[in-house]
Amino acid sequence: MLVERGVEADARAVGVWLLACCVTLFALVMLGGATRLTESGLSIVDWRPVTGVLPPIGEAAWLAEFDRYRDSPQYQQVNRGMSLDEFRTIFWFEYGHRLLARALGLLFALPLAWFWWRRRIPAGTHGPLLGILLLGAAQGYMGWYMVKSGLVDMPRVSAYRLAAHLGLALLIFAAMLRLALRLLRPRRTAADHDSALRRFSRLLLAMVALTILYGAFVAGQRAGYAYNTFPLMAGRWIPEGLLVQEPLWRNLFENPTFLQFVHRCLAIATLAIVLAGWGSWRFRVADSRQRRALDLLLGAALLQVSLGIATLLLYVPVSLGTLHQGGAVLLLSAVLLLAHECGRRPTLG
Rounded to 5, what percent of the chain is helix, strand, coil? Predict the structure, then answer.
């Protein structure tokens, strides 16, 4: 009995720690959105994983940092004539983003080492935790790889690298959240569990992932500024210019009109699936936790679509654009929670 309690305590401790990492990563994704929307991501033109922890201290250090920035394409082509005070503003956004990323790395790596040393890692989670650690290391490099693409000729990061950077962040988030749920709410699959609801959650997860991916390309290609009306685009349901680029595959990732149109369609289709699923199962399932998960899913989907439309109509303000990016994480979390609850023994009530 004492051994069982010890195992449960370890699982709870590791699960709570992973949830703390998820909350931090959520904040990091939000800050990353604000950094992109304020065009601050290219303000720091080098990558110093250790010495870069400290910001410039003193006027001379700030002037040296500013001189490095003035050699960059963004200053030369976009921000020529920017003052030192204006530079400080965009610098702090990027610096804060990098500092929080480093903090998250420590928040994950140091407790992991401690849990491992104390042999408190629950059975079956050693491999997943090491995998998340490796993904985190890869994400650190991916962030710099993305920034570097905007420091050569064009003062804009590669949309492909931006999508990879965001996608990897959400993959890490999903891995941590799923593992945390597994530890805090162990699955005990029942014979009468609703397999149809589980299939629904998997379909929804694929739709949400695809919608987020296209949202990343919309951000990378600045397609959110192309059409700022809803539901029509330039007065049409299907806008002109969807397939104007050659070869045709480039439209999938580089044509702002195509990107915004597909992102809209995916978002509306995702909401329709959520509404259909909620209407089909909300009052049929006996499991109270599944019902709450369905309610959270509906709320997250309605919030995210509302934020997306508002962001579009108001010409992508920083505040709404940042909230919209955070809303994507909340929607992803709701889908993962529902998928997890589909594998638990029903809780009546």
Answer: 70, 0, 25
Q: Give residue limits of the domains in the chain.
A: 1-186, 192-349
Helix axes 2-37, 159-184, angle to 10 degrees: 160
- Give the type of residue at 247: P
**In whole angstroms, what is the distance from residue 224 CA to residue 124 CA?**
43
Give the whole-angstrom CA distance, residue 66 versus residue 308.
35
- Tens of pLDDT, residues 140-154: 999 999 999 999 888
The pair of structure tokens assigned to 90 is: 């965009």
- What is the three-state SS of 96-115? HHHHHHHHHHHHHHHHHHHH
What would the pLDDT profile of 204-237 be if each residue is shown by its tens digit?
Answer: 999 999 999 999 999 999 999 999 999 999 899 9
Q: No. of H helices and E strands in the chain?
A: 11, 0
Distance of alpha carbon 85 from its chain centroid, rounded?
A: 30
pTM, two decimal places: 0.93
- Exposed, middle or buried: residue 342 (CB in 10 Å: 0-12, 13-18, 19+)? buried
Residue 305: both structure tokens together: 């679509």
The contacts of residue 202 (CB under 8 Å, 6+ apart) are 339
